[in-house]
Amino acid sequence: MATTHDRKRWSSWRTANFCFFEEHLSKLPTEKTLIDIGAGPEQFRELTWRFKKTSVDFKQFGTTDVVADLEKEIPLPADSADIVYMSNVLEHLPYAEITLSETHSILKRGGLLIGAVPFLAAVHQAPYDYKRYTIFGLKRILAEAGFTDIEITPIGRPTQLYRNMQDVMFRYLPRTITMWMYQKIERLSHNIFSILLRNQPISADFCQGYGFRAIK
């Protein structure tokens, strides 16, 4: 499990994800069955371990229970899960609609799909980062998979978003700028925008990403 010390090294996006999932998963009974699709190394397993959990991914990460192609039939019984959990998975799937259809099949009627995707974020895990969903695209792909009661929550404050964008932009500064100058410019820029954006609310069109919930 992650420790407090570990969390100090988390990115703002990872922290925002954790807070979203903690808020919603902590309210659910522990006897629920949970399927972690695209589980990877299960970075948030401290939130999922208390459920009757099965982790699924395309390869073995050491704690993976089921290894399967996520864009084909997932070898789990239909109508068997109370919760399907997908943390930062959809953007890595070229044909995510297939995975969502499989997810819908695995869930019991009334079951919960919960997940998160990045929006204004740099490319990561290249070359397997394929998409960025708007709130409209996310609603549509979930509805087309058969889900109802879709709720999408913008996550990641504007100040955090700006800091991430700043880090990316500063990678492309001319090499003639010394590290000392770079640090001065970065600190000044960060301080200015932190003041300008500190009271700016999270909005659907200016956020790091989205948390989503939907019902079968």
From TrEMBL:
It comes from the Bacteria. It holds the Pfam family Methyltransf_23. Gene3D superfamilies: Vaccinia Virus protein VP39 (3.40.50.150). CDD domains: AdoMet_MTases. SUPFAM superfamilies: S-adenosyl-L-methionine-dependent methyltransferases (SSF53335). InterPro entries: SAM-dependent_MTases_sf. This is Uncharacterized protein. It comes from Candidatus Kaiserbacteria bacterium RIFCSPHIGHO2_01_FULL_48_10.
